[in-house]
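Standup notes
- DV: blocked on the single-chain target, sequence here:
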Amino acid sequence: MKAPVLLPIDAPADEAGSCALAALRLREGRWQQAAQRVAEERPVALQYNGVSHAVMLATPADLEDFAVGFSLSEGIVAAAHEVHDLDIESSGQGVTVAMKIAASRFDALKQRRRSLAGRTGCGLCGVDSLAQALPELTPLHSDAVFAASAVLAAMQALRAHQPLHDETGATHAAGFADAQGRLLCVREDVGRHNALDKVIGALARGRVDATRGLVLITSRASHEMVAKAARAGIPLVAAVSGVTTLAAQTAHDTAVCLAGFARGDDLTAYAHAQRLAGATAPKA
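- DV (later): unblocked, structure below
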């Protein structure tokens, strides 16, 4: 596993995140030939102790962050150091990320009998019971409070650190910022869940204290996005778009502040608004 590096946040991806395709563009009634940058999307198999557990469609960049973040956010391991001997192998069929985990962790993984055959950024494919879909989560014990201005400043800054989106217009981003709203890490992917997993993995590999910062996502906030943040100990999730009812309930149950429509000078808090300085929890 390569040495973890978080900064600069615009560092080149580990592998190509886009490629040029020949295309025809219609502009002002005329067809023009063009070489269009397109976001790369490939099957990425996550393999534990020689056994494939999940196949996700993802952007093949920052895959070490993705593998560690997925392992943490799915509860397969409890700490980044439990993932070792990580190896990435590319073939004509896709990319295999092979890693090793402790025998006890692997035994528990086999008991879950999960096999995720992924659509882009798929969240719950392969889950075969409601108990698996909505596992019990431990509430955060955190006194972290953030200024709304810091949240909004970080969200505004996020847009300037999405080179793959600038090239292709086809990717999501997730970012992590400190309490002052300074971006520390940004990752992109065609899948919004994948982008968040990459950020969680980068934080864990870089030994960054996730409990003192916030995560930003360029998508709606779903249940699983909140659950991933809660497992990582992140006390605030801010989405540029709306939230779902289940995301709000999950945020309420895990003591995560959930904010949606974080754009310009505005945001809407749906759970644990008291984590935003000057805000009070809305009446039920």
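- Follow-up: The chain has eight helices and 13 strands.
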